[in-house]
Specification:
Elements: H1 11-25, E1 32-35, E2 38-42, H2 50-53, E3 61-68, E4 71-75, H3 78-86, H4 100-103, E5 112-119, E6 122-126, H5 129-137, H6 139-154, H7 159-168, H8 177-188
Antiparallel strand pairs: 1-2, 3-4, 5-6
Helix pairs in contact: 5-8
Protein backbone atom coordinates (compact mmCIF):
# COMPACT_ATOMS: atom_id res chain seq x y z
CA UNK A 1 0.00 0.00 0.00
CA UNK A 2 1.26 3.46 -0.85
CA UNK A 3 0.16 6.89 0.21
CA UNK A 4 -0.77 8.30 3.60
CA UNK A 5 -1.94 4.90 4.97
CA UNK A 6 1.21 3.00 4.06
CA UNK A 7 2.84 1.22 7.02
CA UNK A 8 6.45 1.66 7.91
CA UNK A 9 8.17 -1.75 7.70
CA UNK A 10 9.14 -1.62 11.39
CA UNK A 11 5.62 -0.74 12.58
CA UNK A 12 4.35 -4.32 13.11
CA UNK A 13 7.45 -5.23 15.13
CA UNK A 14 7.24 -2.00 17.13
CA UNK A 15 3.55 -2.56 17.84
CA UNK A 16 4.32 -6.08 19.04
CA UNK A 17 7.06 -4.83 21.36
CA UNK A 18 4.79 -2.12 22.77
CA UNK A 19 2.00 -4.65 23.33
CA UNK A 20 4.41 -7.05 25.04
CA UNK A 21 5.71 -4.25 27.25
CA UNK A 22 2.20 -3.23 28.24
CA UNK A 23 1.30 -6.83 29.02
CA UNK A 24 4.36 -7.21 31.25
CA UNK A 25 3.74 -3.88 32.96
CA UNK A 26 0.15 -4.89 33.74
CA UNK A 27 1.11 -8.22 35.28
CA UNK A 28 0.62 -9.07 38.91
CA UNK A 29 3.83 -8.95 40.85
CA UNK A 30 3.41 -12.06 42.98
CA UNK A 31 5.54 -14.89 44.27
CA UNK A 32 3.64 -18.01 43.22
CA UNK A 33 4.42 -21.63 42.48
CA UNK A 34 2.62 -24.25 40.45
CA UNK A 35 1.43 -27.38 42.25
CA UNK A 36 -1.00 -29.85 40.71
CA UNK A 37 -4.08 -28.03 39.47
CA UNK A 38 -2.97 -24.81 41.17
CA UNK A 39 -0.83 -22.90 38.69
CA UNK A 40 -0.69 -19.66 40.74
CA UNK A 41 -0.38 -20.93 44.29
CA UNK A 42 0.49 -18.38 46.96
CA UNK A 43 2.72 -19.04 49.96
CA UNK A 44 3.79 -22.37 48.45
CA UNK A 45 0.49 -23.76 49.72
CA UNK A 46 0.79 -22.59 53.34
CA UNK A 47 -2.35 -21.35 55.07
CA UNK A 48 -2.35 -17.51 55.25
CA UNK A 49 -4.82 -17.48 58.15
CA UNK A 50 -2.72 -19.79 60.35
CA UNK A 51 -0.02 -17.14 60.73
CA UNK A 52 -2.61 -15.06 62.60
CA UNK A 53 -4.63 -17.72 64.41
CA UNK A 54 -1.92 -20.26 65.26
CA UNK A 55 1.16 -18.04 65.16
CA UNK A 56 2.85 -20.54 62.87
CA UNK A 57 3.25 -21.47 59.23
CA UNK A 58 0.96 -24.41 58.59
CA UNK A 59 0.60 -26.31 55.34
CA UNK A 60 -2.75 -25.91 53.64
CA UNK A 61 -4.68 -28.74 52.06
CA UNK A 62 -5.14 -28.95 48.29
CA UNK A 63 -8.75 -29.94 49.07
CA UNK A 64 -9.46 -26.72 51.02
CA UNK A 65 -8.67 -23.71 48.90
CA UNK A 66 -10.00 -20.42 47.58
CA UNK A 67 -9.14 -18.12 44.72
CA UNK A 68 -8.62 -14.43 45.33
CA UNK A 69 -7.64 -11.98 42.58
CA UNK A 70 -6.54 -14.82 40.30
CA UNK A 71 -4.37 -16.49 42.94
CA UNK A 72 -4.98 -19.71 44.83
CA UNK A 73 -4.66 -19.97 48.60
CA UNK A 74 -4.81 -23.24 50.54
CA UNK A 75 -6.05 -23.65 54.10
CA UNK A 76 -5.53 -26.10 56.95
CA UNK A 77 -9.24 -26.02 57.81
CA UNK A 78 -12.59 -24.98 56.40
CA UNK A 79 -12.85 -22.46 59.26
CA UNK A 80 -9.66 -20.76 58.06
CA UNK A 81 -11.00 -20.68 54.52
CA UNK A 82 -14.18 -18.98 55.74
CA UNK A 83 -12.20 -16.38 57.72
CA UNK A 84 -10.15 -15.65 54.61
CA UNK A 85 -13.20 -15.31 52.35
CA UNK A 86 -14.78 -12.79 54.75
CA UNK A 87 -11.73 -10.48 54.72
CA UNK A 88 -9.02 -11.64 52.30
CA UNK A 89 -7.11 -8.36 52.51
CA UNK A 90 -6.51 -9.07 56.21
CA UNK A 91 -4.59 -12.25 55.42
CA UNK A 92 -2.81 -11.91 52.07
CA UNK A 93 0.95 -11.48 52.40
CA UNK A 94 2.33 -8.04 51.74
CA UNK A 95 4.48 -7.33 48.68
CA UNK A 96 2.98 -10.22 46.73
CA UNK A 97 4.62 -12.73 49.06
CA UNK A 98 8.13 -11.66 48.09
CA UNK A 99 10.85 -11.12 50.69
CA UNK A 100 10.13 -7.84 52.48
CA UNK A 101 13.88 -7.21 52.81
CA UNK A 102 14.31 -7.56 49.04
CA UNK A 103 11.45 -5.13 48.43
CA UNK A 104 13.23 -2.59 50.68
CA UNK A 105 15.82 -2.60 47.86
CA UNK A 106 13.12 -2.67 45.11
CA UNK A 107 14.03 -6.29 44.31
CA UNK A 108 11.13 -8.78 44.16
CA UNK A 109 12.73 -12.13 44.87
CA UNK A 110 12.76 -14.80 47.50
CA UNK A 111 10.09 -15.33 50.05
CA UNK A 112 9.95 -18.46 52.16
CA UNK A 113 6.65 -18.98 53.99
CA UNK A 114 8.49 -20.41 56.99
CA UNK A 115 10.25 -17.08 57.70
CA UNK A 116 7.73 -14.36 58.47
CA UNK A 117 6.56 -11.67 60.85
CA UNK A 118 3.26 -9.92 61.46
CA UNK A 119 3.85 -6.16 61.68
CA UNK A 120 0.92 -3.87 62.45
CA UNK A 121 -1.54 -6.65 61.61
CA UNK A 122 -0.01 -7.42 58.21
CA UNK A 123 1.87 -10.56 57.12
CA UNK A 124 5.41 -10.09 55.82
CA UNK A 125 7.42 -12.93 54.32
CA UNK A 126 11.23 -13.09 54.21
CA UNK A 127 13.75 -14.97 52.10
CA UNK A 128 15.29 -16.68 55.11
CA UNK A 129 16.33 -15.89 58.65
CA UNK A 130 19.23 -13.65 57.59
CA UNK A 131 16.95 -11.51 55.43
CA UNK A 132 14.52 -11.21 58.33
CA UNK A 133 17.34 -10.28 60.72
CA UNK A 134 18.63 -7.60 58.36
CA UNK A 135 15.16 -6.14 57.85
CA UNK A 136 14.49 -6.04 61.58
CA UNK A 137 17.74 -4.19 62.32
CA UNK A 138 15.84 -1.05 61.33
CA UNK A 139 12.28 -2.28 60.91
CA UNK A 140 10.64 1.13 60.63
CA UNK A 141 13.07 2.48 58.03
CA UNK A 142 13.06 -0.74 56.00
CA UNK A 143 9.28 -0.94 56.08
CA UNK A 144 9.05 2.64 54.82
CA UNK A 145 11.50 1.86 51.99
CA UNK A 146 9.66 -1.35 51.10
CA UNK A 147 6.24 0.30 51.06
CA UNK A 148 7.50 3.17 48.91
CA UNK A 149 9.34 0.97 46.41
CA UNK A 150 6.41 -1.45 46.20
CA UNK A 151 3.93 1.36 45.54
CA UNK A 152 6.09 3.50 43.24
CA UNK A 153 8.17 0.96 41.35
CA UNK A 154 7.73 -2.77 41.94
CA UNK A 155 3.98 -3.44 42.01
CA UNK A 156 2.73 -4.26 38.54
CA UNK A 157 6.19 -4.95 37.13
CA UNK A 158 7.37 -8.32 35.94
CA UNK A 159 9.50 -9.63 38.84
CA UNK A 160 12.44 -10.78 36.71
CA UNK A 161 12.65 -7.53 34.80
CA UNK A 162 12.43 -5.47 37.99
CA UNK A 163 15.02 -7.64 39.75
CA UNK A 164 17.47 -7.38 36.84
CA UNK A 165 16.96 -3.63 36.68
CA UNK A 166 17.67 -3.12 40.39
CA UNK A 167 20.63 -5.47 40.44
CA UNK A 168 22.23 -3.19 37.84
CA UNK A 169 20.85 0.17 39.02
CA UNK A 170 20.90 -0.15 42.79
CA UNK A 171 18.91 1.95 45.21
CA UNK A 172 20.91 4.67 47.01
CA UNK A 173 20.84 2.88 50.38
CA UNK A 174 21.93 -0.48 48.92
CA UNK A 175 24.06 -2.70 51.14
CA UNK A 176 25.59 -5.98 50.05
CA UNK A 177 24.91 -9.20 51.90
CA UNK A 178 28.39 -8.95 53.37
CA UNK A 179 27.75 -5.41 54.65
CA UNK A 180 24.43 -6.42 56.15
CA UNK A 181 25.98 -9.45 57.84
CA UNK A 182 28.73 -7.27 59.33
CA UNK A 183 26.12 -4.83 60.66
CA UNK A 184 24.09 -7.73 62.10
CA UNK A 185 27.15 -9.23 63.82
CA UNK A 186 28.12 -5.84 65.23
CA UNK A 187 24.64 -5.52 66.75
CA UNK A 188 24.97 -8.97 68.26
CA UNK A 189 28.38 -8.07 69.76
CA UNK A 190 30.18 -10.65 67.62
Amino acid sequence: MKGPFAMHPALPRTALLVAAGLALAACQTVNTVSDGDDSRLMLKGFDPVAYFTRGDHVAGSPAIKADHEGLTYRFASAAHRELFLKQPASYVPQFGGFCANGIAYAIPWGGDPDTWKIIDGKLYIFGGQSSKNYFLMDEKRNLEFAQRYWRDEVQGMHPRIQTARRLVFRVPHYQSGKELEEAWRARQGK
